[in-house]
UniProtKB/TrEMBL annotation:
PANTHER family: AMINO-ACID METABOLITE EFFLUX PUMP-RELATED (PTHR32322:SF9), INNER MEMBRANE TRANSPORTER (PTHR32322). The keyword DNA repair does not apply. It is a multi-pass membrane protein. This is Membrane protein.
Amino acid sequence: MSSIVLPSAPVAAPASPVMKGLAAGVVAAVLWGLYLALSRAGVVGGLAAVDIAVIRYGVAGLVTLPFVVTRGLPLARRIGWWRAGVLATLAGPPFVLAGVGGYAFAPLAHGALIQPAAVTIGSIALAAWLLRDRPTRERLAGVAVILGGLAVVAGPGLFAGGAMTPVGDAMFLAAGLMWAGFSILGKRWGADPVEATVLVCVLSGAVLVPVVAVTAGFGRILALPVPDLAAQVVVQGVLSGVVAVLAFTSAVKWLGASRAAVFPAMVPVTAMLIGIPVAGEWPTTLQLTGLALVVAGLALAVGLVRLLR
């Protein structure tokens, strides 16, 4: 009697590195948009930039501490403590203090344009120099479209400001270049996404929290209403401090540092979209046009258009 051969179950094709990197980058951009929206709410509610940094790295350090207890800091052992300290500094408290603190001197629109533009341009330049990752014409064209879209999103706010505006602009520029340095050096030194995230969270929390406890204290944080404090803890400490950093470093791993550099440029757009249900703020027609430009430029810069074609 002949045997019956059953058809084998179809096996799903594994996602390509480009698609996985695209998904990880979008997740990071969405979470950073939420972080930006909550940072605004926190500053309006009486928090200072250092308070937001404490919530972010204090909570993130506690969340990632079990990894350190079980495995230590393998990345620090592999690349050396000096390099580990550099990565923790570039993506740690100085980054948040500059990026959030700049809003005390410059309008929101300036930060929405300067910081992501600095990340994108700085990352592409550093990748070309340190990683020999030369940008293609398609990628450069996509970045140009993204920067144009950001300028449209920021709109008239780009022309607002006062005597101290250059100070805030310099802080936004510094924050963007710090994140660019973190992503490129992490790639150059072979940083695993999980290990890099744990390293930044634990070292930043271990240094920042005791210093603030002795100097400024936690009075402003503890004065927040419980629902507001819980939202800050979840968004700043868990989603932005851990999940978003892990997602972005994964995007760098799968896409390359130069292509992944375009995702921070989506943060103002995601923050604008998040503001619709959170604050009831609907974007104008001009801002929606800028949003469309950013998305189109992103698809072009990461090679999605070529992949689909």
